[in-house]
Design brief:
Structural class: alpha/beta
Number of strands: 13
Shape: globular
Helix content: 25-40%
Radius of gyration: 17 Å
Order of helices and strands: EEHEHEEEHEHHEEHEEEE
Oligomer: single chain
Largest sheet: 8 strands, mixed
Strand content: 15-25%
Distance between the termini: 21 Å
């Protein structure tokens, strides 16, 4: 998923690439809100970027939509947690440790104040699950719970995100692209909801892209490998780290993401 490129090839860790001619998206930014669907998404797809922002003195907040209830557990001592309520607690603890490792200043859960609209009662958005359509592309699961994120009205999800944006007033909000990175339905839903919330609150929004593009600012962040690796190891129920690669619960391998782009929408 990550793009190629090394920070040593450039004078600064973030750069726009040869064709990018837009203003730097992080220029003058003091606070950023990341919006993710599940525990571990923040580290797998944007851990290096979060570490870079923190290193620049930018305050980073994180909104996580679900508790990852449908996550498959890697073989080993934690595999007994799969499909149990104990997995939800474990993933919450993993997320807390990873957030502390990355330097995230504040965490929020979608459906709980201040990430809950109006006077609505607290809501738990459950992990919708997924299935692989082909290698690298996910689609909807065969069985989806009634209280799953993708079954919630988009307007309600967007209003909850907007409530947090109204409270924090971040200088920039970052979430997935319109394909959810690799098609996970929860990722796609959070892209849709976050974009709608940002438009409602007139907040700047940038989507994460994993390949260089002329309209995206590209960041090569190899210098944060140690921090990202440590944060990835916090998500021990979901993955293992093998050198410069992540090994997922199903055995899939991918390079640790150390280069990422941002596209303003």
């Amino acid at each position: 998923m990550s793009g190629a490129g090394g920070a040593a090839d450039f004078d600064r860790p973030g750069f726009g690439g040869p064709d990018f001619d837009g203003p730097g998206l992080l220029d003058g930014v003091a606070s950023v809100l990341f919006v993710h669907a599940h525990p571990d998404d923040e580290t797998i797809s944007t851990g290096a970027l979060i570490a870079e922002l923190v290193a620049r003195g930018i305050r980073v907040s994180l909104l996580t939509a679900t508790r990852g209830e449908q996550g498959d557990v890697v073989p080993g001592p934690l595999s007994v947690l799969e499909g149990t309520d104990a997995l939800t607690h474990e993933r919450e603890q993993e997320l807390q440790r990873a957030a502390e490792t990355l330097g995230i200043a504040a965490r929020f859960r979608l459906g709980e104040r201040p990430a809950r609209a109006g006077h609505l009662q607290r809501r738990v958005y459950r992990d919708s699950g997924m299935k692989w359509i082909r290698p690298g592309l996910a689609g909807p699961a065969d069985d989806i719970d009634d209280d799953a994120l993708v079954r919630a009205p988009l307007a309600e999800v967007a209003a909850d995100v907007a409530a947090l944006i109204a409270q924090l007033r971040p200088d920039l909000v970052i979430s997935y692209d319109n394909g959810g990175g690799y098609g996970h339905p929860d990722h796609v839903r959070m892209h849709e909801a976050t974009l709608a919330a940002c438009r409602a609150e007139s907040a700047p929004f940038a989507e994460v892209v994993h390949d260089p593009a002329p309209d995206a600012e590209w960041f090569a962040l190899d210098r944060h490998l140690a921090t990202v690796t440590a944060a990835l190891r916090c998500h021990a129920s979901q993955l293992t780290v093998d050198g410069a690669h992540i090994v997922h619960s199903g055995g899939q391998r991918e390079p640790i993401t150390l280069a990422v782009g941002l596209r303003a929408l």
